[in-house]
């Protein structure tokens, strides 16, 4: 799909033909599962391309390292598109809900994504054997709740990226000044759509 390829190129994150095919296969599986399991409210293919696939890729340039954790992955965003766009990375997709974890595992199995592991668990209870380089999340929880639930993973050198909408609102002021001092707010623009978003990037 040219919209996906052109958008990824505009983000300086070009996708191979295989990655594009896999992104579209992911979308097809999402739509199929969504008829029964209500994984997304976005059901038009063009909107899935912009609001899910390209939106996920807006943070590709912010990723650091090769071991990545997608917290509250849901339908696989942003982790799966980023894994397809960044072939040298290995991902863990974390979600507490069984139906979402089962969907994610089916996508991984169907697409042969050996660099992705799916874990069903609440993040506050998740204790990985090896630390990650970057943690990402996409509109999972208000910042204070997200920071509190993931603090045990904020080890030295770890980058944490929280994708948010156009406005942060009061949640920004509800996290401690010490945490805010570690943060950079990066504006994100989704190609071909009037979706202005932002990433809160914490560096430990």
Can you give a write-up of this model?
The N and C termini lie far apart (38 Å). Helix 1 (2-10) runs parallel beside helix 3 and helix 3 (45-57) packs across helix 4. It is globular, with a radius of gyration of 16 Å. A hairpin with a 6-residue loop joins strand 6 and strand 7. Strands 3-2-1-4-5-7-6 form a seven-stranded mixed sheet, covered by helices on one side. The protein contains seven helices and seven strands, in the order H-H-H-E-H-E-H-E-E-H-E-H-E-E. It has helices spanning 2-10, 17-37, 45-57, 79-85, 98-111, 143-150, 177-180, and strands at residues 67-71, 90-95, 116-120, 134-138, 159-164, 183-189, 196-203. The model has no long low-confidence stretch (mean pLDDT 93). It has 204 residues and is an alpha/beta fold.
């Amino acid at each position: 799909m040219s919209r996906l390829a052109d958008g990824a190129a505009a983000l300086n994150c070009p996708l191979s033909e295989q990655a594009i095919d896999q992104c579209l296969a992911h979308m097809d599986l999402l739509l199929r599962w969504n008829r029964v399991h209500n994984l997304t409210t976005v059901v038009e293919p063009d909107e899935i391309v912009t609001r899910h696939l390209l939106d996920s890729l807006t943070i590709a340039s912010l990723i650091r390292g090769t071991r990545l954790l997608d917290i509250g992955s849901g339908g696989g965003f942003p982790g799966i598109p980023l894994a397809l766009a960044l072939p040298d990375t290995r991902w863990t997709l974390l979600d507490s809900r069984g139906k979402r974890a089962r969907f994610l595992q089916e996508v991984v199995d169907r697409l042969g994504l050996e660099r992705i592991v799916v874990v069903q668990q609440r993040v506050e209870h998740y204790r990985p054997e090896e630390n990650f380089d970057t943690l990402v999340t996409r509109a999972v929880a208000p910042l204070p709740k997200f920071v509190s639930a993931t603090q045990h993973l904020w080890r030295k050198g770890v980058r944490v990226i929280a994708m948010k909408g156009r406005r942060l609102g009061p949640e920004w002021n509800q996290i401690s000044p010490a945490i805010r001092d570690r943060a950079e707010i990066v504006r994100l623009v989704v190609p071909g759509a009037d979706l202005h978003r932002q990433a809160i990037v914490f560096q430990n």
